[in-house]
Structures are given as structure tokens and as C-alpha cells.
Fold this sequence. Notes:
This protein is an alpha/beta fold and 258 residues long. It has a six-stranded mixed β-sheet with strand order 1-2-3-5-7-10. The model has no long low-confidence stretch (mean pLDDT 96).
Amino acid sequence: MYQTLVTDLSNGIFTITINRPDKLNALNQQVMSDLNDVMDEVYQNKDIQSVIITGSGPKAFVAGADISEFSGASVAEGKALAKRGQDIFFKIENCPKPVVACVNGFALGGGCELAMSCHFRIASDNAKFGQPEVNLGLIPGYGGTQRLVQLIGKGRAMELLMGAGMIDAATALQYGLVNYVVPQEELIAKAVAILQVINSKAPIAVAKCIEAANAVFDESKNGFEVEVNAFGDCFATEDMKEGTTAFLEKRKAIFKGI
């Protein structure tokens, strides 16, 4: 179905693997188009409860964008390229189902931006992160300047953005860029274990958590108001009735996403 992605759905967990290992999974326009389409599938397929995004091979998650596509672009074309990338990554960030990045190697440039658009990140111990765009006379265009500051703070983000340095997995963990660092052979299993727990919770409530947490960084929204409305909306769900009843009856809740 997808030219540059391999997908697998198992027990509600949908794994998306960017499959250009000969190019270290670099983001070209076909990859971006496939990511846009696959996220539509995630939104629409009720069998998908949660998502893992990773890269093929042992070396790279995504080692950047395909720079050959930038050559000769005009200002207007550059803006359009960035806008399209941001729109696709917003679709990941705002997905009502949990999306986890399993960073299995280099996550540079657009790859780091892709990882940051996911709800959280798990890294293999050989992972490297960076935004080296200034080496090309550019800046990150797919949300990297914004999300890096959000995730690790302005001072550290400024140093990485302006100096184009790379940080290893241990430093990314220290900075709060990733939640866990594990050996590469344990990377997917760690994500699956976490998502199995999340998948056992009330799906609508999980989606509302994502919506409310994302509102923290959306200047067009009052995050507290979003929380109030989301909290109230939960009272209309069967899952809320089931969850509270199960608690009072001292049994495990069985959620149906309604």
C-alpha cells in the first residue's frame, strides 16, 4: 500500500517502519506523502489502538531530509515545503491514539522533528539526535525549533539549533527528550509493553489526555478550559460509567471506547 513504509498491526498496536535503509530512511516527498496517508489510516481504522513509528535497519531512525530535493527551490517553494511537513507532523502530534517513536539510530534534522512530533520517544542505546540544518544554511522547518524548546528548554535547544551538535541517547534521556534508553534489540518490546498498558485504558479518556496536554503549547487555546471541557465530555461516555462502577465494585474495568 505504501511505497516507503512497512506496516504491521498486531493486538491493536500498529507499527510503521520507514523503509529506505539504503538512504538511512531519509525523508523525501514520497515518504512524507506516505506518512500523511498512513496517519489517515490510523485515524480511520478502529482496529488500531496505538502506533509505533520506527526506521528500518540498525543505523537510523531517520537521518534527515533528502537534501537533493531542496536544490534550486524558491522562497515560496521552501515555505510550501515547510508548511506541508508541519501539517503532516501536526497530524501525528494531534492523533487521538498514542504514537510512540522508537528511535533506533540517527534521528537528525527531519528525523528528529518526526520523533518530536510523536507523543513520546524511546531510544536505543546507539541513538543520536540533532538539528544540523544550520550546516546547510537552513533552519528546521517541520516544527523542530518549536518542539525542541518545548521538550528540553530554551537554553539547551538554542545550543543544539545554532551549533548543529548531536547528542547521544544518554544525554537525550538526561535532557528529557526521550523517556527510556534500552538496547536496540529491546526497543520495540519496550514500546509494546508500554502501549499494552495504555491500550487497556479507556480510549476516549486517552484521546482527551492527548488533546488537553497538547493545548499547553497552543497559544490559540486555553489549556485549562480544554481540560474542563474534556473532563466534562468524559461523563457522557459508557467507559466513564464502567470505570467508576468497576472501581466501586473492586473489579477490573472493561472499556469499549464508547
